[in-house]
Amino acid sequence: MTSTASRPAVADGVKQGLAQLRIETPSWGYANSGTRFKVFAQPGVPRSPEEKIADAAVVHRLTGAAPSVALHIPWDRVDDYAALAAYATDQGVALGTINANVFQDDDYKLGSVTNPDPRVRRKAIDHLLECVDIMDATGSRDLKLWFSDGTNYPGQDSIRARQDRLTEALRETYDRLGESQRLILEYKLFEPAFYTTDVPDWGTAFAHCLELGPRAQVCIDTGHHAPGTNIEFIVAFLLRAGKLGAFDFNSRFYADDDLMVGAADPFQLFRILHEIVQGGALDPALGIAYMLDQCHNIETKIPAIIRSVMNVQEATAKALLVDADALAAAQRSGDVLAANAVLMDAYNTDVRPLLAQLREESGLDPDPIAAYHRSGYQQQIERDRVGGRQAGWGA
Ligand code: AOS
Ligand code: ZN
Ligand code: ZN
């Protein structure tokens, strides 16, 4: 199949598709992180939002595919967000999605926007509104909301009342958005709440986004599902409904592992990207934000993020190799084996030589990770940055 991939017409199609793919990297992925048991400090990690942006810019320079970085408030709090955006531009990247944080405060023990106490709900909503102010200053399009809200015990609170409170908070936040801004609602099956979660699945997120209006969209974090969930079905459904706003890409073996995307299950990533390609959704005009949401607890962070970008590119290239005509013909004629073979032929193609060639054609090093190791950047940050910061967990 390598010969198919290297045929000029096929290579051109892959090249055009990949040129549309823009992957946003998360500021917190560059900082120290860990589990509930231990945060491992790594040498050279950023001490400020500016240093996280500088690292993101390195990933973009080497891959040519990661032109924006997502911020997290308050982990990336600064006095002057317009100045931070200008700094990012100087570095060659843009500030992307603003991720709100209403989970890291003692007040939120029983929830944030769904808390039974109206004072706590007000505080949480005020933070979401502040995030929109920040978006105005940074020029960010998307506000991403993930709520840790839920309950641990049956009877702890009214499931239905919590939905009412959630609806009120989302409405107030949505109404504050500017014309070109969006609210992106993320769902997660469980954790930190274990009995009920207030936005546990795509159906709940979808229903709230439908009620809010056209600028409310769903975020699929690939790690936020029960084992065996058919994520590509969710992708296809939301795309068809015009409600897929963003991905938080990562890999999971067991729960919300936040491992490198494409590491645990590259076939699942390919199936997801196949739905994206089939739906024409690589086109930036459709507005889907392809973000990473990962932590690199035991591996060196910048090369891990480069690897993750490359993993998404490889899965996308394979999805672009699917022979759409042959697939449609096999599907029409009910030839199950032939249809499946079309997908598997694309998946089993080694696209790495093609991607290396495309990088060289764009003036990039064909091997971005080797280029990073040769660049001396890691040695430089390990020398220069003393006292690197934790991303936020356990702070
Ligand atoms: C939490 O599990 C979610 O994946 C969030 O998207 C994210 O990890 C957190 O909000 C960091 O910004
Ligand atoms: Zn996420
Ligand atoms: Zn998560």
If you had to describe this structure to a student in words, what would you say it looks like?
The protein is of the alpha/beta class and 395 residues long. The chain has a single domain (21-322, 364-384), classed as TIM Barrel (Alpha-Beta Barrel), CATH 3.20.20.150. The chain has 15 helices and 12 strands. The longest helix has 21 residues, at 118-138. The model has no long low-confidence stretch (mean pLDDT 96). Bound molecules: D-allose and zinc ion (2 copies). The site of one zinc ion (ZN) has 5 residues, from loops.
Can you describe this structure in just a few lines?
This protein has 395 residues and is an alpha/beta fold. The chain has helices at 2-6, 8-20, 49-63, 81-91, 118-138, 159-176, 202-212, 231-240, 266-278, 301-321, 324-332, 336-347, 352-361, 368-375, 377-384; strands spanning 23-26, 33-34, 39-40, 68-72, 94-99, 142-145, 150-151, 182-186, 196-197, 216-221, 244-249, 289-292. Helix content is 47%, strand content 12%.
